[in-house]
Amino acid sequence: MKTSTRARILEIIRSQSGTRPADLVKTLALTPQAVHRHLRTLLAEGRLERRGGGPKVRYFIAGKPQLEQVRAWYGAESKPAENPPDLICETRDAFAGRLPRLTLTGLGQDDQSLAIAAVGEIGNNSFDHNLGKWRDTPGCWYQIQSTGGRLWICIADRGQGILKSLARVDSTIRDDQTALVTAFEKILSGRAPERRGNGLKYVRNIITGKDRRGLACRSGAGLVDYGKLGAECKEELADFPKSEGTVTLITWSLK
Amino acid sequence: MKIPLNKYGQILTSRPAGREAALAMKATVNPADDETVELDFEGVLSIGPSWLDEVLSSLRAEFGRDRVICLPTKNPSVIESLRVVDAHPPHSE
Asked: B80 and A201: CB-CB below 8 Å?
């Protein structure tokens, strides 16, 4: 009985973006004491993480990023109802202003230097390739989470996607997967005739430079991953909708 | 002639910011004909290749490729950026 209740608690928490004990009390029709007892056990087993304090405390699955919110935002068929101002950078300046948040995450100085440069390239790409072409919401989603000794950094946009950007300059690129691989592995820029196209190669070099890093990127039906931890990022993005736009998930070990 | 890049910020990313920095540099840097222009990365936390490419391309076009020098640094973002920018120079003919 207890085991199945705990399994149900894990299932509820997995499906949400952080769960409050009061929500579990209501959903499971248990007493607050019983819910807290189960939560204590799951915390002790290392299956849950607690974040926040007092009435704002929420429980999360340990070691996994919470991506439900960005998945809903990225995949919304029309203009998303929710645009959390602390996660959406409507302008390039807003994004640049939030980049230094990576210095507060526990990364060493060399890792900070590389992570900021890589995330900067990806976030700036959102603006470089979508100015005047946003589907409905300008800017990019930028979220940093720390869980299980890892940083998880998610950057997403509701722009035109990589295929449309690259097919404009190379008509042989006809599908999302080819466009993504080209973007990360070949020198070609959707901003031609401007001479660009190095940014994502640089990001790939950084991610594959050490074992403790990984990246996955989805755009439309395309999905690629790089680095030793890339498969874990890919798994997280696998069930994201095949929307236009681009979403990138980076993981970086803090150990 | 040395240009301390930390005067342009600790975090230097994006092409528009690089372009702006290059214009500011060209407006204030006035080396003698036989003088080199040295980029000093001391005090910079992170540089992206887009920013550096804009600055290097602009300064090299103005002063000549051989006169623009990147001073040695242990900053890994600079080392990686130079590797990409100089290996695949998108601005060179």
From this structure: no
